[in-house]
Design goal:
single chain; elongated; 4 helices; glycoprotein; 14-stranded mixed beta sheet; Leucine-rich repeat, LRR (right-handed beta-alpha superhelix); 403 residues; little secondary structure; LRR_dom_sf; SLRP
Length: 403
């Protein structure tokens, strides 16, 4: 027996509403008929979302935010003071030069040593770290130093500019603002005079192989603490302008003076009494009256034109230890050498004999000398005629070279 299926019942509300409206003399618009949804439609409705999610255009939103930020930044930059803007630009994040860990690309840096030698550069590289202590710039083509470039290097102690193309005008005012500079090498350049703006802290200055022909006291007034001065291979001579007497007197602490290979005809007078080493090799000196240099220990007079040494010529040098008279024209052995002398070199002269009292001190024939080394190679000494008592004043074990 077949059971009747349930049909969806239609809810008839229209008739009731019409009757009620007729009683109240009111009219209502036709009402839609409501039906019960089927199971299939209920399933579809349950699985389908009520509304679709709205897509957000994030790229346009980001562009809007960026434009807003740019407008704000431009507005802030306009209102900012110029000094503050400059300060921001030169911070290490934007401007890496001069920082402790920066090194110019053409150089090599090792700790606080900056090595820029043999690079063919024509100027001092930009960006050397401010904390650099040793800066090496030799063997380049540097012909000028930018004004005030070195003033900020408060830690620099050693600056080497050897073998470049620097002239007097190119270095004017370049070094006076370097407060800690102790050693300055300007050898093998094109300088014609000693710089007059040297730093007060300077202890060693090398000006060898330049074209120096003039020197004044004003050059040394700024660096009284100078210990080593090397002026070899220049054109300095004895004269009122070239090398006047007492021109070096302001250097009251000078220890070493090198005047090799210049045009001196006599030993300069008025040298600082503090000098311990004096080198005068390769000049035109014929005789040497010394002023009292009570601290002089090393004296180099090789390759001059000395043909005779007066008796007692070295009396004013009480602590002289080494004496070099090689490559001169001496015909006699110098007499009464300083008692404290340890070594004397007399090679390549024209000495023919050694007198009996050559190594005795003063007028006492038995006063022993402190010499331990005597060099007499390449002379005209006839060993067959050599006096047996010639070396009697030498004490202890000495070395005498004849060949």
């Amino acid at each position: 027996m077949t059971q009747p299926t349930d049909k969806p019942k239609t809810v008839k509300l229209v008739e009731n509403d019409t009757k009620l409206a007729a009683k109240q003399n009111k009219t209502f618009p036709p009402q839609p008929q409501l039906t019960r949804p089927s199971a299939k439609s209920q399933l579809t409705t349950a699985n389908t979302p009520l509304t679709k999610p709205r897509k957000i255009n994030r790229s346009s939103k980001n562009k809007t935010i960026r434009k807003t930020k740019e407008k704000k930044r431009k507005k802030d930059n306009k209102t900012q003071k110029p000094s503050k803007r400059k300060k921001e630009v030169t911070t290490s994040a934007y401007f890496p030069y001069f920082t402790d860990n920066y090194c110019p690309p053409e150089c090599a840096c090792y700790g606080r040593v900056v090595q820029c030698s043999d690079k063919g550069m024509d100027k001092v590289p930009y960006g050397i770290p401010y904390n650099a202590r040793y800066v090496l710039l030799m063997n380049n083509h540097i012909n000028s130093i930018q004004l005030d470039l070195l003033n900020e290097y408060v830690s620099m102690e050693f600056l080497v500019l050897s073998n470049n193309l620097l002239t007097d005008g190119a270095i004017e005012g370049a070094f006076e603002g370097v407060p800690a500079l102790k050693r300055l090498y300007l050898d093998r350049n094109l300088l014609e005079s000693v710089p007059t703006d040297l730093p007060f802290s300077l202890e060693e200055l090398r000006l060898d192989n330049n074209q120096l022909g003039v020197m004044s006291e004003a050059a040394w007034a700024r660096c009284p603490g100078l210990l080593v001065l090397s002026l070899s291979n220049n054109s300095l001579g004895n004269g009122s302008e070239s090398l006047p007497n007492t021109v070096l007197s302001p250097l009251c602490n000078l220890r070493t003076l090198n005047l090799d290979y210049n045009q001196l005809t006599s030993v300069p007078l008025g040298l600082p009494l503090s000098i311990k080493e004096l080198y005068l090799k390769g000049n035109l000196i014929e005789q040497f009256p010394f002023s009292s240099l009570k601290n002089l220990e090393h004296l180099g007079l090789a390759r001059n034109k000395i043909f005779k040494v007066a008796i007692g010529a070295f009396r004013t040098l009480p602590v002289l230890h080494q004496l070099d008279l090689c490559h001169n024209t001496l015909r006699q052995m110098p007499r009464q050498l300083p008692q404290g002398l340890h070594s004397v070199a007399l090679t390549h002269n024209k000495i023919q004999s050694v007198p009996r009292d050559a190594f005795c001190w003063g007028n006492r024939s038995l006063s022993l000398s402190g010499l331990v080394r005597v060099q007499l190679e390449h002379n005209l000494i006839d060993m067959g005629k050599l006096d047996a008592q010639a070396f009697r004043c030498l004490r202890g074990f000495q070395v005498v070279h004849f060949y």
